[in-house]
Amino acid sequence: MTEDDLNAPGEQAATTGELREHEVRTALLDLLAEVGTVTATEAASRLGYSSGLCSFHLRQLARHGHIEEAPHGGGRARPWRLRQHTSDADGPAEEEFGDLARGLEDESWQRWLAQRDQAPAEWRQDEAFSAVAYLTPEEMSRVANVIRRALAPYQDREQRPLARPDGARPVALITRLFPLLPHTTGDADQD
């Protein structure tokens, strides 16, 4: 028996445990995107996990800044919601990831435009659109949450190929909600 043989079972168990944690946390985040707020007991009922497991992972998600405790009227029940992002809360790591994600999105869009004619005929159209709306920060967050909830029924198809209907393909879904800033005199010199 080699050292690798002795270490392999433990490594596999750790990997399986990490995958399980990822699965539970992803399910919780998807549920929050779908319903807005949820307690550990409600999450357990909807997802089929124990309330203790849901409670633990909800606290971990909060600890890492993904969710926050939602306002409530007291009592033992602790409702959770997706974290309401504010501009000063985002750190350098989040900004770096955001820049990388936007770059990859832009690259995929440019590849689509350049190669659209090579796609099967039924896939040659896209649904790109943009709009400007006058919103408060709270309304902007609500719009984002509505979009997340609208997409939630399709989220499990990435991990569950059998849930995909015939003819389904991966489709990029990109939403960017941001305030439009006024032009400054320096902007005119760069145009």
TrEMBL record:
Coiled coil: none annotated. Residues 1-20 are annotated as: Disordered. Transmembrane segments: none annotated. InterPro entries: ArsR-like_HTH, WH-like_DNA-bd_sf, WH_DNA-bd_sf. CDD domains: HTH_ARSR (cd00090). It comes from the Bacteria. This is Winged helix-turn-helix domain-containing protein. It comes from Streptomyces ramulosus. The lineage of its organism: Bacteria, Bacillati, Actinomycetota, Actinomycetes, Kitasatosporales.
